[in-house]
Amino acid sequence: MLPMLSEQVEKTLRQLEVLREQEIEREEIGEIYTKEKRSLAIPRDEGKFLYLLARVMKAKLIVEIGTSFGYSTTWLAAAVQSHGGTVISYDILPEKIEVASKYLSEAGLKGNVELVLGDAKTLLSQISEPVDIIFLDADKADYPEFMELAIDKLRIGGILLSDNVLDCLEIHKDDPEVCEEITSYLIQHPKIMTVTLPFLPNGLEMTLKIAD
Ligand SMILES: C[S@@+](CC[C@H](N)C(=O)[O-])C[C@H]1O[C@@H](n2cnc3c(N)ncnc32)[C@H](O)[C@@H]1O
After folding, report:
1. How far apart (Å, rounded) are the C-alpha atoms in residues 90 and 66?
2. Enclosing domain of residue 139
3. 202 lines ligand 1 (CB under 6 A)
4. 117 CB less than 6 Å from ligand 1?
5. How far is the CA of 136 from the centre of ligand 1 (A)?
6. Does any ligand 1 atom lie closer than 6 A to the CB of residue 132?
């Protein structure tokens, strides 16, 4: 039987889900969060999907762009813990890396995660091993640049997962070209095959690298 999530991991995920719920409720009544204080975590179903995919692929190296408080990182790290893989996760804000580090320690996952502070564009370009999965969850305006870099770093058969492809137009009401640029980039790329998974409200784009 496959091992299930440990108690420590489940507790950490629940704590981060409570934080996210509070954030949503407070934003609904007009409270404004600073970038440093917003968790912006993916929904639980999407986290579960990341976990299942990482396990099915027995992913040895996963790169995450956008750690925030470490919710998605926790799912990915729990998945690779079972077969001995690594998650490298980047965030540009030191406050985020600090909080994520605390939660991943509490979850007992620090041995499978490398949290790296800095601009993921620079950091991702320095990766030299082929990557199994890249999870992209940062600013949408940077997506075309990140996607180009990510496809280059994936192994053939590797998967790029890009969050917020369905709610992109809502996030970028004043700048819809950002979303059009992402879609046309993916449709025209000759080395990939891509499909939108309807996780609500975000939408997750799953892109397979089929050629070098
Ligand atoms: C939507 S949040 C990530 C949420 C996280 N993946 C989760 O589900 O728990 C996006 C994060 O990307 C980080 N970020 C934005 N641009 C970045 C960049 N160029 N390099 C690294 N991190 C970046 C932000 O600081 C923010 O914490």
Report:
1. 6
2. 7-209
3. no
4. no
5. 8
6. no
% of the chain residues with pLDDT over 70: 99
Phi, psi angle pair for 115, to nearest 5°: -95, 125
Is residue 2 in some structural domain?
no
User: Is residue 41 in contact with ligand 1, taking CB distance under 6 Å?
Assistant: yes
The number of folded domains in the chain is 1
* Position 29 in a domain: yes
Q: Which atom of ligand 1 is nearest to the CA of 64?
A: 6
174 vs 108: CA distance, rounded Å: 42
Token pair 């089929």 is found at: 210
pLDDT of residue 3: 63
14's tokens: 């629940």
- Residue 91's Cβ-count burial label (10 Å; 0-12, 13-18, 19+) is buried
- Pick from 76, 74, 52, 53: which is nearest to 63 by CA? 76
Cα 194 to averaged position of ligand 1 atoms, centre (Å): 22
Answer yes or no: is the C-beta of 100 below 6 A from any ligand 1 atom.
Answer: no
What are the tens digits of pLDDT across the range 158-197? 999 999 888 887 887 888 888 888 988 998 999 999 999 9
| Residue whose CA is at the smallest distance from ligand 1 atom 16 | 138
48 within a domain of the structure (yes/no): yes
User: How many Å apart are CA 61 and CA 128, to the nearest integer?
Assistant: 11
